[in-house]
Write a structure and sequence with these properties.
The protein is of the alpha+beta class and 458 residues long. The protein is 59% helix and 12% strand. The chain has twelve helices and twelve strands. The strands form three sheets. Strands 1, 2, 3, 4, 5 and 6 form a six-stranded antiparallel β-sheet that branches. Strands 7-8-9 form a three-stranded mixed β-sheet, with helices on one face. The protein is rod-shaped.
Amino acid sequence: MTNKIDVLFDTTVKLFKSFEDNISCENGVLRLNKGVTLSEEQVIYLKYLFDHKDKFRNFEMSIDWEDVESSDITPNAECTELKIEFNLYGGNKFSFYTNEKDLFERLSLFLIQGKSLPDNYYFIEENFRSDSELVRPSLIKLGIISKWIEFLTKISDIDKKTDDGIALYYFIKGVDDKFAKPLEVKVSSIIELINCDEISSIEDISKLVSEDENGNLHHRDRQSFFKLALVDTLRKLVKEDSSNKTESAILFSHLDKIKNAYYEHYDIFIHNFAIGEFQQQVEEKGFDYAEKISSVLNDIQIRLYAIPIVLVSLGALAKVDNIYSYLFIISGVIITALFNHWMINDQVLRLEQIEKSSSFTFDKLRVQGHEKLESCDTLKNLDEIVGNIQSRITDRNTKITYYKIFCWLPTIITVILFFIKEKSSIFSFFNVSLDNPTLDNFLCAATGVVKILHLFFS
């Protein structure tokens, strides 16, 4: 792939090379060392630069010591003065340097403080143009370093520009610290960082500075864990280092260790977060099913308040002499018992559904716990909650059985009282006598009672 040619840059380089030793470059300024008779090729280059002189910070030229216009630049004319000052980050946006080291030294402050390399640059000693297809390893490393500096600046608590770079401050309590101590990291030499043996990639870390497209809810937590890993790891590395390197050089030489420490902290956080989330889910489900089970009995108990009321109303039987009034009272008692019986059966079905739902839910949670967690305490707590739910269901089933009996108690009492009070009328109506009861009488009565009980309690 061929890079796009900047005509102004290309023309300036060609002009510089055409003057050979008669021109020099110092501090971003091209200056003619002595007068030169212009060739046709140089005239073409100079006219183009003269027509675009507003792109440069300064452009001075004279022929025979006189100021010139574009028309005065002709072949064989004596160029006695030429001074071109580059406008690095505006205008022409390129410059000349002795070599790669010269570029890094001159632009170190700008690169550290967030500026990028100029659009184009030329290394005089190596005759290297930035628009060539040659790839220089140091420039690739510079790109990685620049991304790291930008990232470290964004996650720092305070960043301050200095005369030679930046100072970054991180306020976070380390693992072994009793209280938070600020960690200062000064970055003042880009060459020092370029000379580090290997710079770890930032691609997997750079996402920590902002939310992703799906709305990352934990990116600030991850930033905190990275700062914790940075502070703890860098302090240990500085104590162990005996080469008198600056903290920034130690930092960039061991970014891989800081990343590994971050992943360890974050993995622990994720594991603990998963345990906490799972524990909360288990407790919420346990509380939910406990509430549902309790509501089963509450619904029954509210309706069973009718039993004492019915028992009190049975006192009316003692004052009623009319058989029709008896039947009216007995019918009301039986209907109340039937409604209560049907309501209790509905609650039994509801309790069975709750039991099936809880078994399915907690079995699913148990499988998830074994797959994702290694915490025996959390799984043990799950077993305790499941056992508690099962115990409550068993207890409710026992109480429901008693409630079934109690709901028919007023009816049984009513029948017994009615029989005692009106037994003579009943016997005479059915032509039955108990003066000389036979075995058949008892068998028939017992069989009838058993059938009635079986009908209502089955």
